[in-house]
Amino acid sequence: MGFSTVGLSGFGGVLPFARRMLVEERRWMSPEEFNAQLGLCQFLPGPNVVNLAVIVGKRYQGLAGAIVAPVGLLAGPVAVVLLLALLYDAYGSLPLVQSMLRGIAAVGAGLLFAMAWRMGMAIKDKLAFLPFTVMVVAAIAWLRWPMLWVMLSGLALSGGLAFWRLGRR
Questions:
Q1: CA separation for the pair 68, 26 (Å, rounded)
Q2: Mutual orientation of helices 126-137 and 147-168 as an angle, nearest 10°?
Q3: How far is residue 123's CA from residue 66's CA, in Å, rounded to a whole number?
Q4: pTM of the model as a whole
Q5: Can you tell me the distance from the alpha carbon of 4 to that of 69, in angstroms, rounded to the nearest whole number?
Q6: Side-chain half-sphere CA neighbours of 35 within 13 A
C-alpha cells in the first residue's frame, strides 16, 4: 500500500515522496540507510525508485514483496499517464496547458532540490564528503563528463576514503 500511495503522489519523480514515506512516516529506514540504499540503486540499471521499491519489498516481504512493491509503485501512474496522454493529444497545444506544464516542471525541480538538501543533512561527517558533492556537480553539470565515469570515479574515491578512515580507527 505504501508504494501505491507514493506512485500516485507525484508527477515527474516520486523519489521525494518515497523518502518521506520510508524515512519520516513509516520509519522503515533511517536517513543514513535511505542514502546508502539509494546510492546502491543509482548504480543498478533502471529507475532508482523502482529499484528501491524492490529492495524494500524484498526486505519486508521476501520475493513476493520484491514483486508487489514495484507493481504497486507503477500500476497507478501507468493508468494516469495513459489518460493524460489522451488528454494531451487533444489539448496539449493550448497555451494554458503549456503554461501549466512549465509550472509543474518548476515544482518537480523544487521537490528534487528539497530532497537533495534533506539527504545531504543526513550525511554524517558532511565536511569529509562535501568535496565529492562539489566534484560530481562540476564533472556532470559543467564539464559534461559521462555519468558512468563520474560514478565509477566517485565510487573509487569515496570507497578509498572510507577504507582509509576505517583503517585509522
A1: 18
A2: 160
A3: 27
A4: 0.60
A5: 8
A6: 13
Question: How many angstroms separate the CA atoms of 44 and 161, rounded?
Answer: 22
| Site of grid cell 518515497 | 18
Cell output for 82? 495513459
What tens digit of pLDDT does each residue of 34-87 get? 998 998 898 888 889 999 999 999 999 999 999 999 999 999 888 988 998 999
70 backbone dihedrals φ, ψ, rounded to 5° = -70, -30
Location of C-alpha cell 582509509: 164
Q: What is the distance between the alpha carbons of residues 101 and 95, in angstroms, rounded to a whole number? A: 10
Map out the domains of the chain as residue ranges: 2-124, 125-169
Measured CA to CA, the distance from residue 80 to residue 14 in angstroms comes to: 14
